[in-house]
Amino acid sequence: MTAALLAEKVEVVFDQFRALKGVSVEVHPGESFGLVGESGSGKSTLLRAIAGLAPVASGSITVTGKPLGRRRDKAFYRQVQMVFQDPYGSLHPRQTVDRLLQEPLAVHGIGDSETRIRRALEEVGLSSGFRFRYSHQLSGGQRQRVAIARALILEPSILLLDEPTSALDASVQAEVLNLLEQVRRDRKLTYLMVSHDLAVINHMCERLMVMQNGESVEQLTAADLVSHNVAQDYTRRLLKASEGFVRVG
Amino acid sequence: MSAPDISEMGWREWLLSERPQSRSQARLGRAYMTWRRFTANQLAVIGLFIILALVFVAIFAGLLAPYSPVVGDLRGARLLPPDWAHWMGTDDQGRDILSRVIYGSRLTLYVIVLVALIAAPIGLIVGTVAGYAGGWTDAILMRITDIFLAFPKLILALAFVAALGPGIENAIIAIAITSWPPYARIARAETLMVRNSDYIKAVEIMGASPGRIIMRHIMPMCISSLIVRVTLDMAGIIIIAAGLGFLGLGAQPPLPEWGAMIASGRRFILDQWWVAAMPGMAILVVSLGFNLLGDGLRDALDPRSSGQ
Amino acid sequence: MSGNLLEVDNLKVRFPTRTGVIEAVRGVSFSLGRERLGIVGESGSGKSQTGRAIMGLTDPRAEVTADRLEFDGIDLLSLPARERRALRGKRVAMILQDPKYSLDPVISIGRQIVETLRTHEKVSKAEARERALDMLAAVQIRDPKRVFDLYPHEVSGGMGQRAMIAMMLIAGPELLIADEPTSALDVTVQLDVLAILDRLVAERGMGLVFISHDLRLVSSFCDRVVVMYAGRVVEQLPASELANAQHPYTQGLLDCMPKIGADRHPLPVLARKAEWAA
User: Fold this and answer.
1) Do A94 and B1 touch (CB under 8 A)?
2) DSSP label at A4?
3) Is residue B63 part of a domain?
4) Would you say residue B280 lies in a domain?
5) Residues of the domain holding B276
6) Which of C187, C216, C258 is facing A177, going by the closest CB pair?
7) What is the interface pTM, i.e. ipTM, of the complex?
8) To which CATH superfamily is domain A5-241 assigned?
9) Cβ atoms of residues A24 and A7 within 8 Å
10) Rounded Cα distance, A173 and A168, in Å
11) GO terms for molecular function, please (chain C) (predicted)?
12) What's the pLDDT tens digit per position in B152-207?
């Protein structure tokens, strides 16, 4: 079985700063894989390196057995799409939802935009009343739904999720997480999901990698996390922190 | 959800609707919000009124002007002070100054419209390309911009007119060439602000080409600040055009260009003040109008306030 | 219940806008002794505006009314602006979410703490410096002398938030309002900062209002929890009783968060009811 996504010893350097120090990860087709870590751990950088948004200094990235060059071609973007963290920043402030969803279709010369846009909105649970709104007329959760619709409209097989719910309220987070699970089931998607929240990753992913300072700390399964079967102290600290504040004495 | 009928809700509600039913409704609604922000500023409305009056006068100059702007009554009407027959008096050729000022509005409008149409797009393209491409492209484009910025505008315009020869078309070209660099700077600054935003990254990972990203996603973000800046610059452009006219390098006699009129009136400035003062007043009013309009547009178009 | 540190009765905050009046806080009442009170709610619930109104930091365009808004028996709403300013920082202090925005970027951390102290107390420069260093040590900054001379951009988020806590506590306030004090920090740093805050509040016998969106964090940290929804208090209960919350909103909020080990697909979502906001 070829991996859906294979990153080997990926290094990312920004102006002398090694944001990613040779990280390898393998994501199987149909799997949901999580990247957990704190700020500066390189988890988002790895995602951006795969998407072609961060400069890869060395190492290789392979998508369904095909190695990626320096420049990503259009076929890549039809296979891999991304949802960003901040729903307030990832939608163009001067475009309506309709225009936002039209753009990927126009870029790839896909016709039939009318039905595709309607279907995409329906899939993420937005009524047609949202179609001609500007992003400032939407709530955070609705914006993230639009962002998911935009990613799905090209019918990719791999979705990169960069903290898709960390800017949302808890109740809205639950709705968006449910939506992500639903579309993954319906479309048999592969997820690579970044979060600082262990509980979210545990909920969404079968396997995960803990990262710190641009390096991999360890790889675990969701079951390992539940049974606290972890090898590294850092992971243990993260686990403890996710349980809330404990008063000493 | 059934679309409520326009007649049921009235235009206002239709425009302000939080859930527009069509592309055009969304666009009109947005324009209406901008218009409401704009009209909240009374001075800006006065500015708009002045500019609309200028356009009106320019279009209907033939009907509004009581006399010919170029042929005067040399024998009986030289240098008459303002009175009921000649509201702004007459000049040394016996021409009615009011008629000349009215016809002059056409030249003024001609100059600013053409300068805006030439300079703003050049600045926009140079700035957004430099800002988005970065690296060498940025360095080269911005150093060229710096070279133009290093000269005082009027001096550079003078040099160009001297090289191209006097005349109003050449004056327009010269002013346009000297006024795009600030627009390029503004466009570049705006581009640098948005180019790393997630919404531009989102278009990049759709596989959109750089040209498409600049044209369709970055330029719309730069345009409002550019419109404001161009409007505020209009006053300066009018004055440079007038300055070139004053120096004899812009519009040539007998064209009733306001700057050239002031120049010809300076010989009589102590005894027949109106010859220079009347076109001067016209320049003042129109410049003021553009400044007020620009200030109002700044508040109305500010993308950062468009949320509320 | 007199003798309380803070009495809030029917607090309302209204923002007049072009399209009408927005009521951010609609009649909030609670009282606070020398204890840790958590105010929990989602964005737009009015929790932050409640904190700001107590501090007197509401936007001047807004209208703040209350039947009672008293700190230690002092009526805050009728207090002249000057006296209110004097109260702020000296007896009532506030910690905001992001130290980046609440520390002055061009003044060193040490000087900011010294100046805060010297505006509220007449102390010599040398003594103020001593106390600032002690305070930095109290927030577990390992090398106070070095941090004293650093500028806010030169320290990490966790360090900056500790410096902020030091600055707010230097004048020895009796009431501390913390608005999402750790939300901008990494989870592991978050707990360190909370532990420091917890110890200082306990040692100095302060009252604490802890405003947060994180119900689980608040319930593990505070003695009592006030749950807000759409500008109103929907439920008040001891933190230990949270599991037995009565209001469906509180229950829903607790329920909808993913938990490690709880295998719930899909997650229960909150079905908002119009009557909660009524």
Assistant:
1) no
2) S
3) yes
4) yes
5) 43-67+86-305
6) C258
7) 0.89
8) P-loop containing nucleotide triphosphate hydrolases (3.40.50.300)
9) yes
10) 6
11) ATP binding
12) 888 888 888 889 888 888 889 888 988 999 999 999 999 999 998 999 999 999 98
